[in-house]
């Protein structure tokens, strides 16, 4: 069996490693000419780290990442109302890691090159079309040297939120759906905050700041901090070309003026960023199907979701592992892809729709609505907050009891 993987992002690269580990031949075709360590921070939740640990990647990830010890929620005044342990600190068998997306992608790229061979990871290949011929899939790629046709037993589309394969399967779907929120992303070298390994969510869902470290402190005591500002901008019209556009630092400093707490100075953090990028928080509606004969979707091509609950990359990794399992347990590719779809489409659709409802971050709006001017400690509705957090863990597949029992 030979699999064609379109897309060399996190989902595509982990799929290649999972298939190789299962004894399935595959090759990754990435559209960009050179894979570079781009992006900012992401989180790998315990259910995703279970997959990566089984692939032998945990020691490599740990070298470049921070093992997240706590998730902390605070209001716009810096008052903390929710804190919970994460990963192994919470009793999971696997860690939760915060890492620079580019570092993770390069780590995966190197491992695919090492384990599968450099000839199994081809860049500069942009998928244009596919067709079924003689019980195989023919994928056509445009390159700098002309069109290249590749034959395989299945095609896995891991080509992102603007997936070419998804467009070919659902040509009338239209553009991505804009949430009305703009995300502003940056990184800053600064002194560690709280315990040096906490992820904090500050404010509410119309005016929010997410902050977490993505590297261990250096010899100078400074730590690389990833931050994401979320501002509601419903009347702003954005197009695809506006993604990852450089943002106005002075505008952000004005928006977050006064957010200076005894445990974190948000204004200083924004000021220390060399480059800040903006893009619209968008997703797509869940699809009725992912698999069509010998072709299927994976990761953001299948279920792009709002970056809420730290689930985007993690769900793509879960896709990869389950797809490999289905392919090893079924002699028919078509049956394997349908079994994969039946399990993962339902699971991820729930996460996509729950993230639209703000996911676990709905506790931020709950606190803002009830206590717009701050609160006293005895007023914190602990039971209500706990129910929201527990529900999301169950829905996203990383509640501790179920995950540790696997």
Task: Draw up the topology in text.
Layout: E1 2-6, H1 10-21, E2 25-29, E3 41-44, H2 46-54, H3 58-64, E4 66-67, E5 70-74, E6 80-85, E7 97-100, H4 101-116, E8 121-122, E9 126-133, E10 136-143, E11 146-152, E12 154-157, H5 164-169, E13 177-190, E14 198-204, E15 207-213, E16 223-232, E17 245-246, H6 249-255, H7 266-272, E18 277-283, E19 295-297, H8 312-329, H9 333-356, H10 362-370, H11 382-396, H12 400-405
Parallel strand pairs: 1-2, 1-12, 2-8, 5-14, 12-19
Antiparallel strand pairs: 3-7, 4-7, 5-6, 9-10, 10-11, 13-16, 13-18, 14-15, 15-16, 17-18
Helix pairs in contact: 1-4, 1-8, 2-8, 8-9
Q: Which keywords apply here?
A:
406 residues, alpha/beta, FAD/NAD(P)-binding domain, 8-stranded mixed sheet, 12 helices, 19 strands, globular
Describe the protein's architecture and organization.
This protein has helices at 10-21, 46-54, 58-64, 101-116, 164-169, 249-255, 266-272, 312-329, 333-356, 362-370, 382-396, 400-405; strands at 2-6, 25-29, 41-44, 66-67, 70-74, 80-85, 97-100, 121-122, 126-133, 136-143, 146-152, 154-157, 177-190, 198-204, 207-213, 223-232, 245-246, 277-283, 295-297. With 406 residues, it is α/β, with parallel strands linked by helices. The protein has a domain at 2-39 and 102-175 and 287-359: FAD/NAD(P)-binding domain. The strands form 4 sheets. It has an 8-stranded mixed beta sheet. The chain has a 5-stranded parallel beta sheet with strand order 8-2-1-12-19. A 3-stranded antiparallel beta sheet has the order 3-7-4. It is globular.
């Amino acid at each position: 069996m030979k699999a064609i993987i379109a897309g060399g992002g996190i989902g595509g690269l982990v799929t290649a490693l999972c298939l190789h580990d299962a004894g399935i031949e595959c090759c990754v075709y990435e559209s960009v000419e050179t894979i570079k360590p781009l992006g900012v921070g992401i989180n790998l939740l315990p259910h995703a780290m279970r997959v990566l640990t089984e692939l032998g990647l945990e020691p490599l990830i740990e070298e470049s990442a921070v093992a997240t010890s706590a998730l902390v929620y605070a209001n716009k005044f810096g008052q903390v109302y929710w804190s919970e342990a994460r990963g192994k600190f919470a009793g999971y068998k696997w860690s939760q890691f915060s890492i620079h997306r580019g570092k993770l992608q390069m780590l995966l790229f190197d491992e695919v090159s090492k384990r599968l061979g450099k000839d199994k990871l081809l860049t500069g290949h942009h998928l244009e079309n596919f067709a079924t011929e003689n019980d195989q899939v023919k994928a056509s790629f445009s390159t700098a040297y002309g069109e290249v046709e590749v034959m395989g037993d299945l095609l896995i589309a891991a080509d992102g939120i603007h997936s070419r394969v998804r467009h070919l399967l659902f040509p009338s779907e239209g553009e991505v759906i804009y949430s009305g929120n703009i995300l502003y992303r940056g990184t800053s070298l600064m002194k560690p905050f709280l315990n040096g390994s906490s992820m904090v969510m500050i404010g509410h869902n119309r005016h929010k700041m997410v902050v977490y470290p993505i590297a261990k402190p250096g010899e100078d005591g400074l730590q690389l901090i990833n931050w994401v500002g979320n501002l509601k901008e419903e009347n702003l019209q954005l197009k695809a070309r506006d993604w990852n556009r450089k943002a106005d630092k002075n505008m952000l400093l004005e928006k977050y003026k006064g957010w200076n707490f005894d445990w974190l100075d948000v204004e200083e953090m924004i000021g220390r960023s060399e480059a800040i990028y903006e893009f619209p928080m968008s997703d797509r509606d869940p699809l009725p199907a992912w698999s069509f004969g010998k072709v299927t979707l994976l990761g953001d091509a299948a279920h792009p979701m709002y970056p809420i609950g730290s689930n985007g990359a993690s769900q793509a990794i879960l896709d990869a592992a389950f797809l490999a399992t289905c392919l090893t347990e079924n002699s028919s590719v078509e049956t394997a892809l349908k079994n994969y779809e039946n399990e993962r489409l339902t699971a991820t659709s729930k996460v996509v729709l729950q993230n639209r409802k703000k996911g676990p971050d709905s506790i931020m709006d709950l606190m803002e609505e009830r206590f717009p001017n701050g609160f006293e400690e005895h007023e914190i509705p602990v039971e209500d907050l706990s129910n929201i957090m527990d529900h999301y863990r169950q829905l996203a597949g990383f509640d501790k009891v179920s995950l540790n029992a696997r």
